[in-house]
Structures are given as C-alpha cells and as structure tokens.
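Sequence only, no structure available. Ideas?
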Amino acid sequence: YDVVHDVQCLGFGLLGLRALGLPVVSTVHHPLTVDRRSSFLRDQNLREAIGTMTFYPVGMQSFVARRVDRLFTSSAASARQIERDFGVARERIRMVANGVDTELFSPDPAVARDPLEVLCVGRASDPNKGVATLVEAVAKLPRPARLTLVDDPHPDNPARKRARELGIADRVDVVGRVEVETLVGLYRRAALVAVPSLFEGFGLPAAEAMACGTPVVATDAGSLPEVIGTAGGGILVRAHSADALARGISELLAQPAARAELGAQGRKGVVAAYSWPSVARRTADVYAEISAERRGRPARTTTSAPPGQPRAIASSAPSSH
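Reply:
I predicted one. Tokens follow.
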C-alpha cells in the first residue's frame, strides 16, 4: 500500500503499521477532548464522571496522533483544537474539510418553502449543540413561527422538556432521526436552518442546508464562521445567547428576498468548496505530498502469518519492467 488512511480511531495498531514502513494518516473531525468535556457537563454524579473518564480514550488518541505522518481535519478551528489538546505540531495537520454530496443535497424548486419553519438538525442531549438555547430563542419569536428538530423523538427529549417549561410545546416538533431522503426534503422545505452550536469541528448541517439552497443562522462558535464565511449562505449570531439567536432568526424570517439571495449564494459556495470532488482533490494532494517524502525510503513490508503459512508481502517499489 502507498498510504494507510484511518478515520477517527487513532488506535495503537496504527503505530504497528507505521513501524512496517507504511505512511499513516488519520482524519480527526475534532479531538475527543471536546466530546469528553461535553459528557462531563451531562454527568450528574461521581459515578457518571468516572464513566466518562474511562469511556473516552483521550490518552491513546493523543499519543497516536502525535506519531502518524499527517492528520486530516475539517476546519482551522478544529486544527487549533487538535494542536492544543493533542499536542500535534501544526505543520503536520492538513485542513481538507468535510464533503457534501451536492447532487443529493440540492435545491428543488418544486418543493414549496414554509416561510415560518425553522429547522435544526442536532442532538438536544449534547450540550455542545446548543438546542436548549434555540428552544428559548423560538419562545421569543412571534407566533406562528415554529421549530422542527431532527432528533430522538422520545417524550423525555430535553428539547421537548424545555419547550413545555416555556409554554411552546405546540411550536416544537421533534421528528426523529430520519432517512437521508427525508432529511433533504426537510432542508428544502424550511425557511431557514438554525445551527446554535457551542462548538463545531465543521458543522455538516450548515453545509447540507446551504447545498439545498436554504439559508443558515449559525452561532459564531468553532468552525461555523469558516463554513458560513466560505460558502456565504448565512448569518452569524453570538453563541450562548437566545436573544441574539432570536433576533437573527426573526430578521431573516421577515426578509424572503434576503433568504433567497443567501440560499443561492450558499448553494454556489458549497459546490465550490465542499463538494466531494473538491475534498477528494485536497485529500489526494496530501497523499502525493506523503508519497514524495517517502521516495528513496524502504517501501517493502512483511506481514505476520501463522506458522507454516506463507507471509504476505506488500511493496510499493516500482516494477523493473
């Protein structure tokens, strides 16, 4: 093999592959420390906190991350977080972004927009997603504006609970975890998509929404300023603020022409920056970079095998023919 590409595992076995002489890269959307911090916020007692400490293999991942040839990530914000939390040298991190299937996630003029529907795709149980702040923002919007949330439809979903506390249970519809075709239809139907996150390593719902020609109201947290700024299909508001989120949503709901303009710009921007062909080209460029560094080094590797069986040998040495 020319390159071994791991996705988010960062297990110790990668170091064995590297010891065989194979260049190893890994994709890390954001360091596991982000998820661990979010889990600590949910923990209710010492037992749960200890469970969080043992569940997330941060030590292993950071150890391996510092030793692979390159780390791929999806934003400059995520790269900074990886550098800080995992101690990876900045020059070994490559920002290739996440890919969006822009043929599947695409506008459909035949689908009528609902001018009062705000869509959010995110887990209310994850504090990083900021869904509680969004529900509070919806309570500040004039009726009949409402929220459709793609999340677990359990009666005890935290978004439903908060909506009941605020007296807006009839304006928050939790539709469950839907098939991708249904999700595309929801993006196409919504007036706008809200991304109220407190941190994102990329923010795929923002990119998917813009690919569908739907404008986005996002917080200024994590990678969202990069994604919105690159594609140009949305506006940013202050994170952690229901008032700021409500103002941004309200202003955009009141301006159908602005929504249409942002939607068209976002579609164009996502196709240019985040379509899979664009991401694949950036990825291939890094493969080529690593291959160039490897030239002149031993490229022959021998794998283990049970006694009495021939060992498989992989070599990237050019043929003599």
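The chain has two domains: 4-99+276-315, 114-273.
Hope that gets you unstuck.
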